[in-house]
Amino acid sequence: MILLENMLGLSIGTVKFPTRISYQSCTLIDNIFINIYNHDFSVHPLINGLSDHDGQIITSSNIANSVPRHTYTITREINSHTIMNFTLLLSYENWEDDKDVNILFNNFLNTYLRIFYASFPDIKTKNVYKPKPWLTTGIRISCANKRKLYLTYRKSNNSIHKEYYKSYCQTLSKVIMLAKKLYYNNLIMKSNNKPKTTWNIVRTRILLII
Which domain holds residue 6? Predict the structure, then answer.
């Protein structure tokens, strides 16, 4: 079947194991499709403990060589100096008038964008993973235990396992909330500018929610 799909140039499904497992059934309803052939790859499930759907991870040493190891964010250098240069270059332009509104608009837009891109160059910044500062070793261990309890719970029809798992999740959620609260309170208490630190925390939390 895979050979036929390769000859036809079609994508092939790589997941060959159940991705949704419950006490009563096991089904394969989540898949990863690829159209890159003649590559060795492996696929294994990722048990997240959040739902009855497991994640899937595909790895390939051949493909990984062509994929950047780091991700980058593209921004523009906008500061007082580049803004001043932008306005200066705009002032040098001779904005010729034209009777045709479409030609007038296109000329204006082309000139404006050319100066904009020249004045505010792209800046490539490497994204560095920053671990959550409130994430303690104890919480990590508890999250790992939660996933183990989830496996026991979803494979069993025992109500005791279900209630214990739910109780464990509630307790873990409270511990995480308390760890965050202690961390942010400590930041505010040690800050020399408490209002600014508080607003920075609020702004960060809003961005995470969005």
Answer: 2-64
